[in-house]
């Protein structure tokens, strides 16, 4: 029980890739308005991958979203509803930060768990 509570009380980062800047901003705006994330960093990337047996190289946009760990599953579900990709990249991990920043993330994402 204590371990579960400690995990739920940590912050997480969620990395999501998008077709373009407009798509990234649209989804991130929804996540912010719904208080599922506290903030996101958006940046252009070049991705290389195999899709349907074909090697691909594409310009994309990535979002590195900050949230509380307890919201990761809700974020994943919401992104899948909004995303244009058949198989969106949604990767999350626990993160540590200075206490003031962690407090801000928790305050910015409301009382959702």
Strand order of the largest sheet: 2-3-1-4
CATH class: Alpha Beta
Distance between the termini: 16 Å
| Major sheet details | 4 strands, antiparallel
**Overall pLDDT level:** 92
**What proportion of the residues is helical, as a percent range?**
25-40%
Structural class: alpha+beta
Roughly how many Å is the radius of gyration?
Answer: 15 Å
Number of helices: 4
What's the structural domain tally? 1
Quick one: overall form? elongated
**CATH topological fold name:** Alpha-Beta Plaits
Low-confidence stretches: none
Outline of this structure?
This protein is an alpha+beta fold.
How is the secondary structure organized here?
Layout: H1 2-8, E1 11-18, H2 21-33, E2 39-51, E3 54-68, H3 72-82, E4 90-95, H4 99-108
Antiparallel strand pairs: 1-3, 1-4, 2-3
């Amino acid at each position: 029980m204590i371990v579960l509570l400690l995990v739920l009380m940590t912050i997480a980062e969620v990395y999501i890739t998008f077709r373009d800047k407009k798509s990234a901003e649209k989804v991130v705006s929804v996540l912010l308005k719904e208080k599922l994330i506290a903030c996101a960093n958006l940046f252009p990337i070049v991705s290389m991958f195999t899709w349907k047996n074909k090697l691909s190289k594409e310009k994309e946009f990535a979002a590195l979203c900050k949230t509380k760990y307890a919201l990761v599953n809700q974020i994943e579900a919401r992104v899948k509803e909004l995303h244009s990709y058949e198989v969106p990249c949604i990767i999350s991990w626990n993160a540590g930060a200075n206490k003031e920043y962690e407090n801000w993330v928790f305050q910015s994402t409301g009382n959702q768990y």
